[in-house]
Amino acid sequence: MKAFRIVIAILLFVIPIGARTLWFYQGVYQRSAPVITPDYSSLTVPQPLLSTPISDKSISYPMAPIVLFDVNHIDLYLFSEIKPLTDALSTLGASVRITDDNILLSEQLKQANAYVVIAPVVPFNPLEVTAIQDFVHRGGRLLVISDPTRNTLSTSSTLPTFVQPVDIANFILEPFGITFNNDYVYNLVENEANFRNIILKDFGKHSISEGLTEIVLYGAHSIKTAQTPVFTADPDTLSSLTDKGGNVVLAATGADGNVLAIGDFSFMTAPFIEVADNQILVKNISRFLLSGTRTHDLTDYPYLFSHPATFLVKDSSTSDRETVNMMGTLQKGLALLNISFSIANKPQEGKDLIVTSTFKKADEIKEYTKSFNLSFSTEPLPTAEPEGAAVQLSELAKPTPTPIGTETLFPFPVIEPTPSTRLVVNLPGFGKVSTVGTGVILYLPSPERNTLILFAENSQALLEFAGIISSGSLSGCMIQQDIALCPLTPADSGSSGTNRFP
Questions:
Q1: What is the CATH number of the domain that holds 108?
Q2: Are residues 316 and 422 in the same domain?
Q3: Could you count the other beta carbons within 10 Å of the beta carbon of residue 204?
Q4: Which carries the bigger pLDDT value, residue 401 or residue 327?
Q5: Where does residue 392 rank: exposed (0-12), middle (13-18), buried (19+ CB within 10 A)?
Q6: What is the pLDDT of residues 312-331, one digit of tens each?
């Protein structure tokens, strides 16, 4: 009886399954003809040709130009990603450096030839923006790159929740008439396997586009500018802001060609560097960064030399002790800047020049100072000045009233003052300055040779002056472009050390 019930239960379970199977599956399907599938083997994705490695000859520079990469504004890139660019710069003889958060940007730009900013997140402060503008206006090259794929979330209470590096980059670029649009460009007609991977074939007449026939950008901002476009997309390339095309600019230059803005970063990274002419583009960018004509003035001190330095000694066999000590002091200071130092009795070709002189012997070096229009005069000693007191900067720079008929003006030679008079020098931009307790620096830059001229009261004051110069800072001096006025210990003060202006 029990077995019978088990059999009935199995039948009740199996019969419904069998009935459904016979109802829904009525025999085995036989295909009347084979299914036609696409010919996958014949399908190809349009893509540009891969480029081949490009050799580039190294350029010999008297001193390696410095390219400074910004890393202090949470720039959204890894230094390893830009290896193609840094390798190209090194091949051309450049020195690649990164910014130091412990040093003011203005100080770091003094020695740089080019400055590169890639997708920054932290805003630049007004002092930094001013330093960048001054750097560019004096021939420094600036490269700013922004990329729509490089964004970040911020946890700082001082920043918006979602920070667009394009806004930070525009803060730097706007003074030069260039801004990135907060968009991405795309092309649905012709692209490199993705509508955001755009192919460019239209290039302006610029060194950046030299040798280019085709490049590929992998997600890029368009650029708004009234300056010089370098890359312009075809009419089928559209902006995500308007879904419209026509004259979409992807790279532009400004500020007399010293500023370059590019709306994509990925093209210079591996493996995209291998596509089309992207390698050539990176080579051209590296040449752009090194081809500027960087000019300096005394505000860039101590980075004034572009060649090894020569100390001019009219007769090295008669150098006094102070002169020998002064040359040693200068040599140590220049060694800290990796500048070689030699001594000669005349200027050397391909070398910068350091000239020293007392005010009384200014006529001996007038061939180097004639462009500054210096003139000397004698005037009565001030009656109110305490004996041995330091001459204050305000008094040095202020013209001294002199009774008519008692003043003698002369450019050269310098006339020896009498016991009741003092020698003053007329400095452009400063007025008449007493030569007592005063050091004067003149800087004469040129492509062939940069000349640094030091004036002081006597050889002992020149030795003290050399110590100030070798310290690497002119913070105690008043500077106006190529002329600086520095305080020194007066010869009759009876004290040693440097007397700083208050």
A1: 3.40.50.880
A2: yes
A3: 15
A4: 327
A5: middle
A6: 887 644 567 777 888 888 88
| Same domain assignment for residues 350 and 280 | no
Radius of gyration of the chain (CA): 36
Q: Give residue 219's domain range.
A: 66-290
Count other Cβ atoms within 10 Å, centred on residue 265.
25
- The secondary element (H helix, E strand) that includes residue 286 is helix 278-290
Amino acid sitting at position 415: I
Whether 336 and 463 share a structural domain: yes
Q: Can you tell me the distance from the alpha carbon of 43 to that of 3, in angstroms, rounded to the nearest whole number?
A: 66
Looking at the structure, tell me whether residues 241 and 366 fall in a common domain.
no
> What pLDDT, on a 0 to 100 scale, did the predictor assign at position 77?
92
**C-alpha torsion angle, residues 459, 465, 469, 471 (rounded to 10):** 120
Over residues 359-384, the pLDDT tens digits come to: 988 888 989 998 898 888 888 876 65
Sequence-distant (6+) residues with CB within 8 A of 301 are: 110, 472, 473, 474, 479, 484
Rounded Cα–Cα distance for residues 445 and 468 (Å): 21
Is residue 372 within 8 Å of residue 428, measured between CB atoms?
Answer: yes
Q: Are residues 355 and 379 in the same domain?
A: yes
In this model, does residue 248 exceed pLDDT 60?
A: yes
Note the pLDDT tens digit of each residue in 26-69. 666 677 777 777 777 776 666 666 665 655 655 555 578 999 99
The more confident residue out of 493 and 405 is: 493
Nearest alpha-carbon partner for 225 in 285, 173, 284: 173
Shared domain for 308 and 279, answered yes or no, is no
- Spacing of C-alpha 106 from chain mean position: 10
From 244, 269, 290, the end of a domain falls on 290
CA distance 298 to 281: 36
- Of 331 and 136, more confident: 136
Query: How far is the C-alpha of 113 from the C-alpha of 111, rounded, in Å?
Result: 7
User: What per-residue confidence (pLDDT) applies to 384?
Assistant: 55
Number of domains in the chain: 2
Scanning 27-143, the segments in alpha helix (DSSP H) are: 83-91, 105-109, 126-137
Two tokens, residue 329: 């002091």
Where is pLDDT greater, at 181 or 5? Answer: 181
Give the residue from 290, 306, 323 where a domain finishes.
Answer: 290
Q: Is residue 278 situated within a structural domain?
A: yes
Instruction: Kindly tell me if the per-residue pLDDT of 112 is higher than 90.
Output: yes
CB 415 within 8 A of CB 379: no
Where do runs of H (alpha helix) occur along 191-342?
278-290, 321-335
Q: Are the C-beta atoms of 193 and 218 separated by less than 8 Å?
A: no
Q: Which of 14-23, 182-191, 374-383, 468-477 has the highest mean pLDDT?
A: 182-191
Residues 333 and 361 grouped into a single domain: yes
How many other CB atoms sit within 10 Å of the CB of residue 60? 6
Note the pTM of the prediction, 2 decimals.
0.76
Token digits for 20? 């459904």
| 132 and 280 assigned to the same domain | yes
Torsions phi, psi for 474 (to 5 deg): -115, 35
